[in-house]
Amino acid sequence: MSDRAPVREDGNGMTDAVVTQAMPDGEQAAGSDPAAEGGRATGGEPVAGGAPPTEGAPPTGNEPVAGNERVADAVVPNDRYDEDDHPRFALVPAAYVLLRRQAPRDPWTGGTGRRGLPPGPGAPGSDEVLLQLRQNTGYRDGFWACAAAGHVEEGESVVEAAVREAAEELGVTVDPADLRPVTVLHRGEPGGPAVEQRVDFFFETTRWQGTPRILEPEKTADLAWVPLAEPPVSLVPHEAVVLDAVRVRDAGGRDVPPLMTLGFSDGRGGAA
User: Fold this and answer.
1) What is the pLDDT of residues 112-124, one digit of tens each?
2) Is the full-model pTM beyond 0.70?
3) Range 193-224 burial, b when 16+ CB lie within 10 A, else e
């Protein structure tokens, strides 16, 4: 590892409230019984027409107030579901980060080659996106894909997942404020396996610290800056849908839809 401090790049150089009703002095609520010998009513006395509370009986909402908070179970019902009693359809969330830059004059040497890509970088000044070539993952191996992407882990937001994936896969630090949302892609196979029911959050950025490099060689065969206008043919299909929408937007076409779908018949998956 280098001893140099990372350089920030811009992509061009690499209570629940308790309510009480006031009563006139000397009066008491009908049917209530104040505490012994002039003591004040506590709220635990029998109500009109009712019997005294029975020990061990479930809470009714008339329990004594302590420190302006009722017994938790009497005020706030349990808002957690037992997953065994309430089976629900679930989506697998993932974060994708598109690192963007304008092609420099000097070729980039961070990858190992350009397998399946046009020879050489794009023309200086052209828009490029960083892609990785997948291998040994069990899914679309031999296809190019976003250089940083992965599942959202328990306890983290999708933004935190995007930042983490960029660091783990490429060794770069991305400020969450520099992540621009691109779109949300809901894709699935109706009636298919649970693992194929997905929701993908795409971000793009032109600012990061450090130089992108392969940190997971067992899963990444190559890393390359690719002209956005000339994407590889062997691009992971659902990522190709989003990159095509970005290309159309950058060429002066319509904006990328904030929500896209793939695998359904609602007609929201294209980038015409």
Assistant:
1) 555 555 545 556 6
2) no
3) eeeebbbbbbbbbbbbbbebebeeeebbbbbb
